[in-house]
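Chain A, query sequence.
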Amino acid sequence: MDYKRFKKKYSNLKLANFNSKLSHLKLTPSFRQDIINSSSNINNSKRAGVVALLYTNNEGFIQLVLILRNTYKGVHSDQFGFPGGKYEESDRNTVNSAIRECYEEIGVKLEDYNLVRKLSQLYIPPSNFTVFPFLFFLDYTPTFFINKREVKKIISIDLQELINSKIENLIIQTPNFLSKDKYADFKEVPCFNLNGCKVWGATGMILSEIKDLFNNVY
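Chain A, predicted structure.
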């Protein structure tokens, strides 16, 4: 999608109203609801803000930023995601958390006026976080500075590629937090294959909402 087409209906993005739960459902792993039903922590979950960042590249096409998280001892090690992180007491709100963490992780400074809209929150059982995603837009190509302690690399996805993408199936090893007595060693999950990256889970669910948002407006 080029910049002119994007800007033509930019205001519609802010006002669009559609059922994001259906968007999430398309990319929901089969075992997700079982985990939520068995979780006793959902009402005491931690909060986090993440940035779904759109920007215009040098050729005038809209790109979406994903990151590959670094290897560490945690449930989201080596996973694709969005820049963002935990809400801190010094943050005014989760939007502020998302803006702060985006700068800390990929070196991109955002302002409140760059916010397009709030997306639908998601609970992530493995880490007991409720994630608040926010769609931001920059009308230029930012300079990225990777925090190598947290981020392995940045991946730019052409927005039109996401809009046109089909849902695929990915075979993953059963996560450690699932009971081996109930689940097989490998599970099939829905995913998007974007720029060679197979993205599933909560990140895939947020991408599904973004995809449906643009298909609804454009």
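Residues 3-217 form a domain with the Nucleoside Triphosphate Pyrophosphohydrolase fold (CATH 3.90.79.10). DSSP finds seven helices and eleven strands in the chain.
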